């Protein structure tokens, strides 16, 4: 059973990435354009309009798996800013200050920074074409031994 779960992990990670990115993009779209029941903010308003722009752009990039790590890093940072500057002054814990969603997005995106996009992502098509060889690969050992001789 664990073998099957381990084999499905890169695909589950891709699904996680897609859902988190889509939800984040929807929050940005609701603030920028007033869709999905959101209230539209005036263009250029600090920090709301810029936060919504980051949400929309980074959410779409993460959902597509394009520049995933960089977009997730920016999104995570923006949610950390939102939590500490907007929510935490109203109370320490997210349940007190209404910052639960900001905290969850922050940690979810930080996880994607470290895990990458998963198996199904545009990064795989447009990213680097080099292949990393595992440390135990004989070809890598030969290259390393040639450098030491």
Helix percent band: 55-70%
| Oligomerization | single chain
Number of strands: 0
Q: Any idea what the shape is?
A: globular
Sheet of most strands = none
- Proportion of beta-strand residues: under 5%
N-C termini distance: 46 Å
Structural account:
This protein is mainly α and 149 residues long. Helix content is 70%, strand content 0%. The chain is built from 7 helices and no strands. It has helices spanning 2-33, 48-64, 68-87, 94-97, 100-115, 123-126, 138-148. The longest helix is centred in the N-terminal third of the chain and has 32 residues, at 2-33. The relative contact order is 0.14.
Structure summary:
The protein has 149 residues and is mainly alpha-helical.
Which helices and strands appear, and what pairs or packs with what?
Elements: H1 2-33, H2 48-64, H3 68-87, H4 94-97, H5 100-115, H6 123-126, H7 138-148
Helix pairs in contact: 1-2, 1-5, 2-3, 3-5
């Amino acid at each position: 059973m664990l073998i099957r779960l381990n084999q499905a992990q890169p695909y589950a990670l891709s699904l996680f990435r897609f859902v988190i990115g889509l939800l984040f993009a929807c929050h940005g779209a609701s603030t920028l354009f007033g869709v999905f029941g959101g209230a539209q903010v005036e263009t250029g308003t600090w920090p709301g309009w810029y936060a919504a722009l980051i949400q929309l752009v980074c959410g779409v990039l993460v959902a597509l798996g394009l520049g995933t790590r960089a977009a997730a890093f920016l999104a995570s940072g923006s949610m950390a800013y939102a939590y500490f500057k907007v929510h935490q002054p109203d109370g320490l814990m997210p349940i007190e200050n209404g910052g639960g969603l900001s905290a969850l997005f922050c940690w979810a995106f930080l996880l994607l920074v470290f895990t990458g996009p998963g198996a199904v992502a545009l990064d795989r098509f447009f990213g680097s074409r080099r292949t990393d060889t595992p440390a135990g690969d004989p070809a890598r050992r030969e290259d390393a031994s040639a450098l030491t001789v």
